Amino acid sequence: MQQKRGVIWIHEESNCSYKPGEMAKIFAIHADRSAAGKKELFSELLPQGFMAARYFAFAPDCKSCNACVPLRIRTDDYKFSKSDKVLFRHNDGLTSHYLKPGLPVTLTSEHFDLFRKHSLHRLPAQGQEKWDNTVIRNYLEGHSGLLDLREKDGALVASVIFNYLDKGVAPYYVIYDPEKSGNRASLGTLCLLKMIEHSKNENPGPVYLGHWVDGANKLNYKKRFRNLEALIDTGWHDFDPAIHLTGGDYRKAIPSSAEHMHITP
């Protein structure tokens, strides 16, 4: 039985991951469980500032601030910089493997192990005990795109779980082997450059990066890319981090078909 599209308000506030001392709150619009239903919902709402999760698109609904600014990379005229090309050359021994479009992402023990290794490096305080295979599968599967980067011997060194949209792609989660990355390898940056390349060549349209928050150091990597655009009330505009410091009211983007949706206050 497929789940019908509907709006669910997640009213429990939690500590904000990006602004210490602030409380965060989101709401989500559910897609049905079909691949077509999710692609339709994501293609409609991500260009309006939402982000994609396994079966729903979500946006902030915080009382205390509106610091989440949606960013995307315009790819139609994207030109790889000298440093981009150096990074490609440095990693030219890696091979790219894309899941065939239309197939749901299914992860293997390789992905689980890589996720734990990556998470332990980034979030050592959390430990690995919380990330068993079932938890990782529930967190990462259910999306429509998967890119694996492998060494010549077949070893998996990085993966991007992403979603195909009608126009462009939306990376959901990037994992990589921290022991194989570094200033020269920069596997995290390489993964997103591969998304730009894939979007330019295979599914023309922007690369949606999710939200940026001024002062959140762990989101600063997004500012390194060219052709960045920010969503403000008047649409998408060339991104200026000194000006684009606040997001909009995402509830305005609830589809007109919302009359059949169940809304919990």
Walk me through what this model shows.
- The protein is α+β, with helices and mostly antiparallel strands.
- It folds into two domains: 124 residues, no CATH class; 120 residues, Aminopeptidase.
- Helices cover 22% and strands 27% of the residues.
- It contains five helices and twelve strands.
- The longest helix is centred in the last third of the chain and has 15 residues.
- The protein is globular and about 50 Å long.
Provide a concise account of the structure shown.
The chain is α+β, with helices and mostly antiparallel strands and 265 residues long. 22% of the residues lie in helices and 27% in strands.
Total of helices? 5
Q: What class do helices, strands and sheet pairing give?
A: alpha+beta
Shape: globular
Q: Tell me about the biggest sheet? A: 4 strands, antiparallel
Distance between the termini: 26 Å
Radius of gyration: 18 Å
Instruction: Bin the strand percentage.
Output: 25-35%
Number of distinct beta strands: 12
Which segments are poorly predicted (pLDDT under 50) over 5 or more consecutive residues?
A: none
Name the helicity range. Answer: 10-25%
* Widest sheet, order of strands: 1-2-4-3
What is the H/E order? EEHEEEHEHHEEEHEEE
Domains, number: 2
Question: Average pLDDT across residues?
Answer: 88
